Amino acid sequence: MGFEKQFYYVIPRTGSTSLFNYLHNKIKKDYFYYKKILEDITDEGIPITSESEQHQILSLKKEISSSIANVYFVMAPFGVHDMIKSEVALYTTLRNPIDRVLSLIKFMVKNKDISILNNKVAKLIHSPAKLFSDPQLICLRNEQTRMFSNSLNIDLEHFDLNIAISNLSRFRKVVIFGDFDVYDGFIKKLDPSILNADADATYPKLNSSSDINLSSEELIGFIIKNNSFDIALYDYFNK
Q: Do residues 93 and 23 lie in contact, with contact meaning Cβ atoms separated by under 8 Å?
């Protein structure tokens, strides 16, 4: 059995920082590729997909196509891995959508001075109806489904959920947030020559529960209403 080339699709607030630190520590620099596409939507109000003619997407695909990496850690819509010419094993982590959105809101409020969107969330935090209807804040609405369906739709349809399920069914492993022990097994599938010999042996233990304290009934209600596809997607793979 040969060694794997691995591609990790990353969704915000799914333990990605800890996973990045783990992989970055384990894998020699020349064999590890890392990139995050932070924009969700174009200036024209269109969701960014792997087919967008947006500069960061085009640059990402060009870099991936010429990279010699064995492990890719990428925050971008599904499909950019197709630029890799050899076979690659796909991995990702899904998180309970209620916990994920609450964690994202808390992060954006805490870092309100970093970006215009973060500042907007901080201003609208006590007005959930406006928060979840804002056309720029699609990161709060079914983001896991949108990323894995690679959809152009601002408001997702049921067929987008079906596409996301179909795409994720091609993954070597869809990890459920909290099942952190599995990452050590993924590392064992890599060529040992690309690993740092002195790296820590195991993935760090994390708190798998929600790390937030914003759980008003009104806010939870809006999260559930605006993340029904993400809830269905999470439930499908958390059997």
A: no
The tokens describing 51, both together, are 């087919």
> How is the chain split into domains, by residue range?
6-237
CA gap 105, 137 in Å, rounded = 11
Say how many residues make up the chain: 239
Place of tokens 């790296």: 199
Looking up tokens 């630190």, which residue turns up?
21
Q: Residue 7 carries which DSSP code?
A: E
Predicted local distance difference test score (pLDDT) of residue 212 = 47
Closest CA to 162 of 90, 237, 233: 233
What pLDDT, in 10s, does the model give residues 183-238? 999 999 999 999 998 766 566 665 544 444 556 889 999 999 999 999 999 999 99
Distance CA 71, CA 136 (A): 32
Give the SS3 label for residue 173.
Answer: strand
DSSP state of 28: -
Q: Please identify, in words, the CATH class of the domain defined by 6-237.
A: alpha beta
Residue type, 136: Q
Note the pLDDT tens digit of each residue in 111-131.
999 999 999 999 999 999 999
Write down the pTM of the prediction: 0.92
